Amino acid sequence: MSEPEQTEQHLDFIRTRVKEDQESGKNDSRVHTRFPPEPNGYLHLGHAKSICLNFGIAQEFGGLCNLRLDDTNPVAEKTEYAEAIQSDVRWLGFDWEDRFFHASDYFDQLHAWAVQLIKHGKAFVCDLTFEEMRKHRGTLVEPGTNSPYRERSVEENLELFERMKLGEFSDGAKTLRAKIDMTSPNLNMRDPVIYRIIHQEHPKTDNKWKIYPSYDFAHGQSDSLEGITHSICTLEFEHHRPLYDWFCENLGIHHPQQIEFARLNLNYTVMSKRKMLRLVQEGHVNGWDDPRMPTLQGMRRRGYTPKSIRDFCEKVGVAKRDNVIEVELLEHCLRHDLNLCAPRRLGVLDPLKVTISNYPDDQVETVNAVNNPEDSDAGTRPVSFSKHLYVDRNDFMEDPPKKYFRMSIGKEVRLKYAFYITCTEIVKDEEGKIIELICEYDPESRGGDTADGRKVRGTIQWVDASTAKACEIRLYDRLFKTPDPDKVEEDGDFTDNLNSESLQTVDTALVEASVLSMETGKPFQLERVGYFCVDPDGADSDKLVLNRTVAMRDSWAKANK
RNA sequence: AGCCUGGUGGUGUAAUGGUAGCACAGAGGUUUUUGGUACCUUUAGUUGGGGUUCGAAUCCCUACCGGGCUGCCA
What we know:
Elements: H1 13-24, E1 32-35, H2 45-60, E2 64-69, H3 79-92, E3 100-102, H4 107-119, E4 123-126, H5 130-137, H6 154-166, E5 175-178, E6 193-197, E7 211-213, H7 215-225, E8 230-234, H8 241-251, E9 257-261, H9 273-281, H10 296-302, H11 306-315, H12 327-341, E10 344-345, E11 347-348, E12 351-356, E13 364-370, E14 380-386, E15 388-392, E16 412-415, E17 420-428, E18 434-442, E19 459-460, E20 462-464, E21 469-470, E22 472-476, E23 503-506, E24 510-511, E25 524-526, E26 530-534, E27 545-551, H13 555-559
Parallel strand pairs: 1-2, 2-3, 8-9, 10-25, 12-18, 16-19, 22-27
Antiparallel strand pairs: 4-5, 5-6, 6-7, 11-24, 12-15, 13-14, 15-20, 16-17, 17-18, 21-24, 22-23, 25-26, 26-27
The protein binds one RNA strand through helix 5, strand 6, helix 7, helix 12 and strand 19.
């Protein structure tokens, strides 16, 4: 695992705080965090930031980090999600050891605490309907008014709460509310609901409960029970902190410190579960693991490495101000990692036939290709070479501009790892389209250089016609065509900004035979083209399907825009 | 409107009263059997206005501009 390079003078505000607490001896200098997703959807890049923060801080300060599923609302939560979450966190490279918990593990304790609050006159059963409660709540500028049920006796509250628990009332008929302050400027403090009636089977507790605690009544207490020292969450929970504190204090239990940070936003995409769900449900993408999705499953299928994502999460920093990170940073982190670890292969997306006129008709030889120039231990591999080859169509120009280094008539180029060739003749079809290049090769240039040391500036990739394998390649582009997909015309919708060309399928590609043995999901580089990985879609057929993880940086294309 | 929050190059993020730094992006260059990589150089910033101070991104006042909050979601 990569060690985050946190230098002494470069700590973010959360780590600064944790460090101070540790040095002052707070919590006996323990550091204990947790990552608490709700199992109602798949994890995305925004969650990755939180995972890296929580597990990262634990590692850096010699502490622990728990994985906890916040399963207090059985309506949308599913086991399917719970399993994906564990798999994703593990894939990202983190380990919670034996500390895998559920908020539902604490339902009994939470219930007992609710009873305790009632006995202390700090909670009451309320009969107000949803609508009535909304009216009583007041507004942003006006205080709320007390519920008419606020002054029920402890005995009555106890009895009613027990009957709620027994399932005697229908959903929404009654709630248990904390008795705090209906005039508080913080709406969360206006007698918030802490238990509601939900007749719904729970993935973990089955039909044991008819009442479920709200987030506010479960989260802090769960943290407390687990001995969490720093409860790190996103900014939207800032207004809930007074409540978090209120419960810990009024229950007299261990009081973790909640700290909020700004969630991650990335341009050209959306980062909310709700919007991603729509993309999936409305068929704009092919599922949660579509390689264009910012879900961890999508990114994994696309070929993102855990290390590149961790590196990204470290580089985006942690602060309280709203932010939108440019995708270029993500792609930089990806390429940086891939450049170091991805094996190299040869392939052409748009094949153009090449015949070497002075090469023996039936001869086939092998040349040695370097597997990874950044890693000498990766060694070399044999690649077959013969009279009939393919190069990429865009590596030839009949009428090239001044600084074009690749093929054109009479211009000598290097076929990477093989020979120098010079095009002598172009073959066209009736419509004038180039269909073949007749070339001559220099037998003395085997391996890619000659004794005379002459300079050949252009080097291109190629495949041997007799051994190359056909495959389907899926080229991905950003999902949205605008940096801020939420910025729309009136009556518009973020889906208006979807990029209709975010997926382009190329079915003409040819790759060297060894690509067949690449492991699904493990990225490799097709030299000069980009990074790719085998998609699971081809697994059950003979078809080889590749995903383009990310293109190479291309300063030539950029300069010629 | 009330409350809470936050404003540092294009984008992020440091500097907590003492040289505004780093990364990505941009521009230029060196190297190169990937027009990749690596390396070098470079453009560009403290929201405005007052104040305190020898000295302010930092402290105070004020204006302006973002974001959040009226679920029995989390």
